[in-house]
Amino acid sequence: MSVVDQIAAWLRDRLGDAGAEGFVFGLSGGVDSAAAAGVAVQAVGAGRTLAALMPCHSVPEDAALAQSVADTFGIETVTVDLGDPYDALVSVLPPSEHRARHALASANVKPRLRMTTLYYLAQTHGYLVLGSGNKTELMVGYFTKHGDGGVDLLPLGDLYKTQVWALARELGVPEAVVERAPSAGLWPGQTDEGEMGITYEALDRVLMAIEEGDTDHIEPVTLAKVEEMIDRSAHKRTMPPIFKLDEE
Question: For site-directed labelling of 153, which of 20, 96, 159, 188 has its Cα 20 to 30 A away?
């Protein structure tokens, strides 16, 4: 069974378990969300999917590429412009004296607003929320907690980024989307690789080596960098710790 067929079968099983009617997901114009959309259609057909385009002071190219993906797979879209809600919320939040922290905290409001929007759409349609996180990003914590990490299902969660690119081509995702530099769109000019300081190809090589328990061929500085990313983001991959009363 192909990877596409495996994921599609898994999605159908999860949908049945939940008693839900379909899937809703965000389309950003990036390869991950496009691949998630493609496997959703393979699983249940385009008629039981809904794609949300959620610009938030985004570049026009995002919406154009996202719509091209929807058109390719025949997916219904809804556009929810989050620019004004974002501005309104940020305007009432207290500023921080730490400029870098303030900038990142403000940027992360965007994916958290998108999460809220997707769950509204999911509840009103009886759908489940599909995330687009891949194994690479999950392992190093490259996602916003309770933002793009706040989903019901992660169909790409066991695929490294390099495998997602291959899957996207197999699904027929438009080449302009596949070739586009990965970006979370948090600020103008932001790219994933620029923010992480490592390419996805290099990151995948290190993560695969760590999983296989054979890191002797990895440059020590690079290995230490990736291991620190994994350790620092451990809290993102677990449920909140629960205090337990002493039974004495």
Answer: 188
